[in-house]
Here is the input.
Amino acid sequence: MRRAWWLALALRAAAAAAQTPSGDEIVRRVDANLFAESRIMTSQMIVHGERETRTIESKTWQRGTSDAYTEYLAPARERGTKMLKLGDDLWTYDPGTDRTIMISGSMLRQSVMGSDLSYEDMMEDPRLERSYAATVSGSDTLDGRNCLVVDLTARREGLAYHTRKVWVDAERFVPLREDLYARSGRLLKTMRLGDVAEVGGRWVPRHAVYKDVLKEGEGTEFVIRSIEFDAPIPSYLLTKAALRR
Amino acid sequence: MIRFLLKGLLRDRSRSLFPLLTVAAGVMLTVFMFAWLRGVEASLLQSTAHFGSGYLRVTTAAYATDADQMPNDLALLGADTILAGLRARYPALRWTPRITFGGLLDVPDARGETRAQAPVAGLGADLLSPGSPEPGLLRLAAALVRGRLPARRGEALVSEELATRLGIRPGQTATLIGSTMNGAMALANFTVVGTVRFGIGPMDHGALVADLADVRAALDMEDGASAILGFFRDDLYHERTADSVAASFGAAARSTGRYRPVMETLRQASGLSDLLDYIAVILDAVIAFFVFAMSIVLWNAGLMGSLRRYGEIGVRLAVGEDQGHVYRAMLVEAVAIGLVGSLVGTAIGLAASYVLQVHGINVRALLKDNTMMMEDVLRARVTPGAALVGFVPGLLATVLGAGISGLGIYRRQTSQLFKELEA
Here is the structure.
């Protein structure tokens, strides 16, 4: 009787282990859920600074994960500012000066529009599978959702964050929380994601709060107002010429 | 009597020439050292005030803590109201707002692409308002090398060194790439209308000077300022007054928190406190050393003179001259030598200092990596104090030397004098 009980317990544990996907599998599913051939998105970035809160609206056309074109719509000071990412290159166009500036080197560490995001964050390959090795380190509950906690370690040098800890919704494969660390183990940024909705057969977090822990302020909210997957993107849009259009 | 003593001094050069030369040399060195150190100190204070902290500086408390990093996210907001309050409350000072910032100056080619780029140390100051003290404080007219001073919005000056490095000429447009006070990227075009050389290393390396209103617009700092600087109207640093103004401002402050305005004196704001103390100690040490060394030398000279004049003094005592009278006569001689020596030394010291005040010494090569707001050409400064600083100790040292050496007169025994003289 006792032997049968142990056997049942072992079988149940094995079954549970078999049901829990590996870290790499979780990351692959997260990537598959979030990324498409193309997407067009309008969003709001609400920067909660220590002295004031600013809301910045933009529209982004994204092809794959390497090319993107963003046009800022509001406030008046930022209206008409554009940003173009083609592979590893990033340019910004300022209508006030009619200048296109390539953002490189130390400028990449600057904040995007004063938010908690840096240009370096924008330049990172968002597909976690390519950049990080993943292992499942446990489970947790966030906002009433069962989550798998996945530890990510950089596969190569030069990434902005050496390790990440990601809380992934165990059912929808959407990240709900991320802690981003430097190689030294120091926590650099945190992300909380929510308002998950199904869009075009994908689960999309439409609200995120980024917090640069080294920066004063209450963090930056990122709100997706609309998102469209696999929509056609005019080819002229993803060229430098489009910046001064 | 005095006439008799003076005649003795003039006829016996060994009694007068050596002590006189010694006193004159010592006084000259003291005057020169004093004027030189005062000149360096004044230059350092003025340059630091004009290009850095003012004689008094109002910033937010948070900005004051990290001022070296030019943290404009911590800048003063509502600066115009604060400025009006300062002008009304402390009219003895001239108050002016400034923005200091870092960034890149990007020079485009014909297609608008980056042709050259270099880091700049930016300064936004009120250059265009009528009656603004800024062009004078920054000595822009004297510093102008090529082109002209800004006359309208959108115009800027760059240092000659930076202009050469970027290959930019007056009349060309360059783009400032910086950071707004919210941390966003800031881009602004400026027409470079002139180049300047301030003779101050950190400014000459990569300065960009533009009107405050343009910098406010570029860095999204409407009604903001990194600091409001206060300048005494005679352009000298009056430390006690500065301390009392800062204390009065602090006492009247009602707001709290890290964005409250705080006032600091140049000594507090510039980080020069230790250096100023050091200069004061050096000045005191120079004078003390001079008095001590001169006293020793003149005491020694007096002793040698006494030995040489052993017979003379013996005869004077033997014929009945009072010891006190002989001693006083020697002191009067010392006063005469001290007066003449100090006058000569002061005159030569002041003349040498004046030459150095006019011409200065260029120490640019020695200050290559200097980050202090210090002029490349260091000058002496002739002040009324410089005239007294050597004269009084020169006279004092001579009298002290003669006084100590002359005490030997009282050790001579009148009964033994003839025996001594026979020998």
